[in-house]
Amino acid sequence: MENAEGCSVILEGLIQDVHTGCPIADAQVFCSGPAPLIKARSDAEGHFRLTGLSGGRWAVTVHKSPYTAQRRWYNFTEGLFLHIGMEIEALKDEVVTA
What we know:
Layout lengths: L8 E9 L10 E5 L5 E4 L5 E7 L2 E8 L6 E7 L4 E8 L10
Parallel strand pairs: 1-7
Antiparallel strand pairs: 1-4, 2-3, 2-5, 5-6
């Protein structure tokens, strides 16, 4: 299942709110590793799909304001089709008293 770039790793996933389980649309998903940065955005149901990845160690980072960013490390092997779920948490309001 090799793609046009000569890479054979496909990463799909679902981004959800850690407390409600609701999908998070328009979250930024970045993969950085042995090849140039690859990025995508989650759709209305929180799904994303990244192609063009090769085997090796990759950092998968998800970010959507006002949520905290989430990063996980994976070791991909050629021919891999991986489906992951990532939950992110909204930042808490901080009150500062002067």
